[in-house]
## 1
Amino acid sequence: MIVSKKMLIAVAAAIIIIALAIAIPKLSPSGDQTVASASLLRIEYIKEDMKRISYGVTERTGALKSETLVIDEKGKAYYNLNIEGGKGSQTKFQLSQQDMKRLKAILTDTGFMFIPKSEFAIKEDANEFTRYTLKITLDNQVKTVQWVNADASQDFVPPLLTMLSDTLTKIVEEHSS
């Protein structure tokens, strides 16, 4: 009976040691930085305000306004704004390491890379809508998703896409004003 209690205590101690060996690197700040810096992230985000014009038999869809945000793996961001009629602007800025970590966390924790659908259909009667394209490269995996605003979509647009769009739009607003 005493031998079995000693054996039970030894097994419990071994389990606790293994659990601590796994948990400590994940909880410590230096372990978090190693994981974050080991993964490469590149983001290409396009937001286009579109208008469909009918000419009777044919129709044309064109962008009234186009915004492009590219963030490279080092956090350098390039933002281009083009408005129909030739007016446009370019802005370059640097994202903080904290912003990059936050973006990586959003993409990895939410399962963005595993969204099964990559394109969402536009309603036939939608004449004005916003089209979004998001291309994420994370550790040599590439995922491109294209969708339109919920009012103009035939399909259900996952809230994750709206959240990512809002996050990237907020980054642009913070750095381009």
## 2
Amino acid sequence: MMTFILLWSLVSLAFPHESELKETVSAYWNLMAKGEKASALKFVVESCQNDFINRVEPKIQTWRYVSADSVSETEATVTIEMEALFRGAQIASGFQKITKRETWVRDGNSWKLRVTKPSMESLGPLVSGPQKAALPKGLRVTPTVLKIQFLNKSQTGRLRIENGNDLAAQVVSAKFDKTRFELVKWPDRIEPGEVAEIVVRYKGTENDKNLESQLNLVLKEGDQEAKLFQVPVIYNYLSDGARGLFGLTEEQAQKLKRGDKVTPVLKVPPKSPEAGTPPPAEK
């Protein structure tokens, strides 16, 4: 029993200001969660304030105090959990739940945050956002059919070249009908694990719909044999879904000319007979 009391006394003496630390950390993170970084500056060690000002902060949705571990009588490691959206992360990925550890030091009569400059390696996905998935093994061109929409003012279509191999790939040649198409974007080299884009523009004036052509791509990796990718092209493409969206019959769609104005058709469903007529408003 005496041993337990002695140990408890030593722990208490080693960390005499924990409750004050928790209050200070809470005040600091409440300000950071509100985006009030300027007000939170008062909780930062003076020699670290410049680094704090220049530091990029995430958008914090929620945060929670977890624990504080004593390093010495004047230093503690504080652990918090937060849900935050980090710079560079896609908004669609949503807020990420992470655990963060900080060093707080006793500066005079108060606790202050010591800001350190983390390396890019230690930040990992917190800076860059979620890591992209590895590409499937092999060299791929997608989609399998290139469609250039008739109603797209830019008259462009896009192909992706995915290099899931260990060697860099090169576009050796691209053969197509140069009287109708031109290359707007053209990658010379696709590094391993990377994706490049080819952008093709239709430069003609034809109004017939769903016309067909072909693009032949020759790709080569290192000293390996070149590969031919034959990609069918449908230009002046007008799908049944697009036709229905604008309320066009098949005949109207075929007669539609470049530059004609079309607007989406929004049909209001008729009232059911059971609904009846609403009573007049009282005066």
